[in-house]
Amino acid sequence: MPDEPLVALFRGSPELRNALRQAGCRPFHAKAVNLEQLHHAGRLPRLAVVAAAEAADAQSVAVAASLAKTLPLLDVVVWAAHGSGELVRDLFHAGAKDVVVASGVNAVVETAAAILANQQFLPRIDASAAAPAKNSRFESLWSRNPAMWDLFELCDRIAASDATVLIVGETGTGKELIARAIHRRSGRTGRFVSANCSSISPELFDSELFGHEQGSFTGATRAKTGLVRHAEGGTLLLDEIGDMPPQSQMSLLRMLQERSVRPVGGQDEIPVDVRVIAATNASLEQAVENDEFREDLFYRLDVIRLTIPPLRDRREDIVFLLGHFLRKLANHYQIPPPQLSEEFLDAATAYDWPGNVRQLENFAERILLSVRRRRLAAKDFAKCMEIEDEAPETAAPLPRPSTGQPLPLRIDTGKPLAEHLEPLTREIEARYLTAVLRATAGRIQPAADIAGLSRRTLLRKLKQYGIDKRDFK
Questions:
Q1: Which of 46, 104, 175, 308 has the fewest CB atoms within 10 Å of its CB?
Q2: pTM here?
Q3: CATH of 310-389, one of 2.40.240.20, 3.20.20.140, 2.60.200.30, 1.10.8.60
Q4: Which of 374, 329, 367 is nearest to 348 (CA)?
């Protein structure tokens, strides 16, 4: 039958093949791990079952790794009835979805059936799997977009160097994930340390970054190492670098030139071995033109530039990543994912996702936990987006503007326009921030990313309106 899921068997016995057929699958023997050989009757398999030959079977590990690289959306089950603990560990590291250590074929069939049932939520898996996949994964990042593959390859080439990197991309595109991936592949033995430049007070910036000596200023009751020295031998990510105060920009430039830091209140230069990665969602070139960012520091940071395209410019990734997030979250929460109709996926693909990948992941979590229907249509997508963009009527009362004044009910021509607009603007802002916090379950950084605000600005506005993030946990 055309709806029978294809299952590729590697070294599977006739008994296993018959058991899978009786369970409603369409098994076939596969001899090679490549797209041409895996195509069967014009389709790609939904599952691969690999039968390990012995306790230490390096060939099964190689097959699982090759399948994970060639078809990353293909789930792989390895039947290792006599497998050692070391083999099981190696198989999971190679990319196996599950390893069955029971001796009977029934356990293999039950595992295969459960995995195939979880695949039903993503009807386009065959079309997605057919695309070239050799570079679809880079550490914890996934993509089907050629521009992202080029980015992954560039990251891999520069990882081992000490060159300064500037990552440019909108909020939610994964700038910190890229930085962490570069650090993991760099061979550096020190820590990965992340500093958000917009969340550090300008008065304390040098102290936080470069440290201070005891008694160097009021409140400095003890010496502080600073984030740069904390990252010794490792990588320092300076996120939202465009928000760095001017004086600190000069200090950072000196550190990059001299490879040393001088703590606040100190006299001696301390050598440091730190690889600096800067990230921004704004145009540093424009900031240089506006005299808001030092030109010499910009050129020091812009040695290797990595530009991450927004999700709306790589729409082939929307369905691909949505499926990836739903699988991961369904496994985390131990609940079955919903089935997504083609109309739902069309609506998701057409949406621009202003919060990019982070917003898509939050959306996947929302539909998994909050939508009770087993199969979702286009209207369900629209309804889920309304939850994000607009507070429901049953929600708790929204905060009033901090002035306590009611919204104007009539026009007073004796007052200027600004006095009429101010309370309306405050009410809309409070409603918007409430909706964003509800959509992100009270998480500040994702809410700030969606709102296009810095973390510090969002916290200030929440305090201004009396909004408590704990109410949305």
A1: 104
A2: 0.59
A3: 1.10.8.60
A4: 367
